Amino acid sequence: MIAETTVDLARTLDFTDKFLGWMRGRGAVLIVTHDHPDPDSLAAAMALKHLITVKTGQPATVAFGGMIGRGENRVMVRKLEIDLVPLNTLDLDRFPVVCMVDSQPGTGNNSYPFDRRVDLVIDHHPLRESCRNVRWVDVREEYGATATMLFEYLEAQKVSYGTKLATILYYAIKSETQDLGRDWIRADRRAYLHLLPLVNNSILFDILHAEVPRAYFAHFSHAIRNAMIYNEVLVFNLFEIDTPDMVAELADFLLRVDEVKIVLGMGHYKDGVALSFRTLRNDLNSGEIMQTLVAGFGTGGGHDMIAGGQIPDTPADRDTLVRLEQTLTQRLLQTLGCYPVPGLPLVAE
């Protein structure tokens, strides 16, 4: 999807001048990503850290909740020397300044305590009411990637950066927009094309061809065998998973099934359920649909074509997960106006 959005570097310069001026001299900075951070969240955090280091000289720590699960993301963190620490290992009282990227307070997808102050939010998801008490807020939901916003921050502030940060930002935009194939605007394409000549192609190749364990393919087998199709809707349940990233990865993969336009996936991780929603239909808003699906159960959100959700405190037994799948499927089909529809297995046993 292409949106006619003009890059406004004057606005970006004004905003960054103000929050950097406010931040200067206040001490250590904490930058919080969303849980199980993806490339966009990691890139935004590292670019913000670089901006703060260059412009104010303040020490900045990037912290995350959950895990780095996906093979490509682990290679990205290692090869590009992304320095981050688990949020639960930090004394949060040591940070007079707290920033949040690619997420917002109280959304359910980050582990930062909701009752603690957040000073700066930079995000490309729809603005939440929870940001009303945040001093500095830059939310541009029309943007395909938060990394694009941080690229413009560096550009507006005339901050130079090396090939590793360029590679981080490029890969983030590439993965978040599926190579400018979904939820992108002209600002994303502009950043993508500017960063491309600066990329370390050898490292990018290693990221895109990351080795994975054999258990990784068991999830593919499980998803394919459990997937049910309801006209243009495909629903799959992975049941127990060792990384929540698998749900989103398989949702992307199964969206390639012929005549399928909508995919809903779920999997049980630790004490809750991770959800992922994908669509090829331009007349739907995935974030709104996800919020409808999890109403009363958990939290969720997203963009026009992609969304995610979390349902906490869910037992891992198979019967509970089957019932939850049935409930979510019924809600989805009712939301789409096509309930009841008989389901057919993706593959016949």
TrEMBL record:
InterPro entries (alphabetical): DDH_dom, DHH_sf, DHHA1_dom, Oligoribo/pAp-PDE_c-di-AMP_PDE
A Gene Ontology molecular function term of the record: nucleic acid binding
Domain DHHA1 as annotated: residue spans: 236-321
Residues annotated as domain DDH: 29-173
PANTHER family the UniProt entry points to: BIFUNCTIONAL OLIGORIBONUCLEASE AND PAP PHOSPHATASE NRNA
Name the UniProt record assigns to this protein: Phosphoesterase
Organism expressing this protein natively: Syntrophotalea acetylenica
Lineage, opening ranks: Bacteria, Pseudomonadati, Thermodesulfobacteriota, Desulfuromonadia, Desulfuromonadales
